[in-house]
Structures are given as C-alpha cells and as structure tokens.
Amino acid sequence: MKVVVFGLGALGTVFATFLKKDGHTVYGITKDKYIPYFKNNTVSVEGIWGNHEAQLDGIFSDVNDIPDKEIDLVIITVKSYDTKQAVESIKPLVKEKTLVLIAQNGYGNYETAVEELGEKHVLLGRVIFGSQVLRIGHAKVTVNADDVRVGDPSGTILEENILKVVCTIKHSGIPASYDPDVYKILWDKILYNCALNPLGAILECSYGTLAENKETREIMNRIIDEIFLVAKEKGIELNWKSPEEYKKHFYEKLIPPTKNHFPSMYQDLKSGKKTEIDALNGAIVKLAKEIGLKAPVNETITNIIKAKEKIQKI
Fold it and tell me: Is 276 helix (H, G, I), strand (E, B) or coil?
C-alpha cells in the first residue's frame, strides 16, 4: 500500500514507522522547520511495542513534492487546529480510490474532512494508544487502552475497502479493528478526554490523582453531565444510556489502567504548544450554543486553558 502520513508528531511517527517497517511505501508530511531533523528520512519508535526504526520513502513539507501521485491511504495525525489546512492541502493526492483516515482527538475533524473531500473518501479512526515525542522523528508508545477502531460513519465506503485499511494497520503491529459504530466510539474518547485532559493540564497532575480527589471528581462529573445533555439535544447517539452508567465505567474501568498518565494537553502547555481545547470542551460549548443551551463547566475549563495559552504567549 502507498501511504502518506500527514503530521510526524507523536501518533504520526508511530504509524509511519510501523507501516514502513512492514514493507509499505510511506511518505511523511511535516512542517518545513522540522525537515532538517530527519536524517536520511529515518523515524523510530520505542516503548511498550518494542524498538523499531524505518527509513521512509520521503519526508516533505508540501504534498506536491511527493513523487508518487497514486496514493492509497492518507493518515491525518495533525493537531485538530491544523485539520482544515491539512485537508485542503491533500486534495491533489485524493484520487478516485484514495482513502483518508482521520486519526485525531476531538470533535469536528471528521466533519471538516467530509466537507472538503466528500464522504466516499473519509474514514474515521479512534486512536487510544498513548505516544509522546522524545525528539523529532522519535516517539515512545507509553500505553494502549484498546485497538485503533476504524469505520465509516456515512456508510458509503465499501466494507472490503475499510477492512483492507484495518488489516494493513494491524499487520504492521499496531492493534486495529473495524467498527461500524466508530462515531459512538469516538464520542467515548471525547467524554474521556474532556473530563481528564484540561483538568490534568491545569492542575499538572495524573489521571489517577484527578480521580482520587473529591473536588476534581465533582468537576469531572459535571463536565460529563453537560456532555450527555448536549449530545441528547443535538441527537448525537452515545454508547451509554446515562451519565451515571458512563461514570461507573469511567472510574472503575478506564482510569485505573492509565492512572499514572499525564494528559497530552499538559505536555503541550509544558512544551509551549497550542492545545486542542477547541476540539474538546470548547466544541461542547459551541454545540450547546447552537441549540440554545449552556455548558458552564466546560466553558469555564475552556476559558482557563485559553488563558494559560495567552499567559504563556502560545
């Protein structure tokens, strides 16, 4: 398979390394300022899935420089605030049979890609393995809570073509599976990230610490309650019948395996990078406003993160 990984950060480096090592043609797209750091187009991964290194077929800052014009799969792993620019820039690569896999956090990335490229080209992926960049081109996989779930919310892409993508990722060594209900699964992750990511970033603590503290549990509970209310009013179907049912799963099943994990938003703020708050709690606030509701706890959390970005001049 001929693959373009758009965004060679924490997730993109893992996808690119594993797919290339498995024998696929893989090109990477990154910002121009990072190109000099990739010696001989080499990327590498360490961590719970072992040590791996691969030499990509090319790393570019402009998709027009990619020599191969017949691409089977584009995997978008950029931060959500760069999604629109990324999707617009890959248009020259997207031919009749090209599929684009959205492998990002938050709400709105899939919708943006569909608006620009059309439903027949866009797959949605829910990624829930944890990865961090140790240096440019080298990532560490720290935790894996579940398979990379891949599906087509629109129902327009042939199942056999989706399965080909899933099998390609799985065979490379990254756990993956097909899920026709991937949109619900994505919202599971949105719930999880909205409750934990910004609060952990603000307080600079682990997920386990947030769960152990009575005050932070109360804030997380209210974040979850608001998301359920907004989703119900917007007609977004979730996997859970009630916020109480989800909270039980959240505290008993989801947090314990990742109790020592610090949120990516914390890492972003520490590194002086912009966060994805607008695709998480900020997106909940926006959805609420569209239907005449308020989500005050999510709005407060969003405003605090935005304030921290401004104070740190990000």
Answer: coil
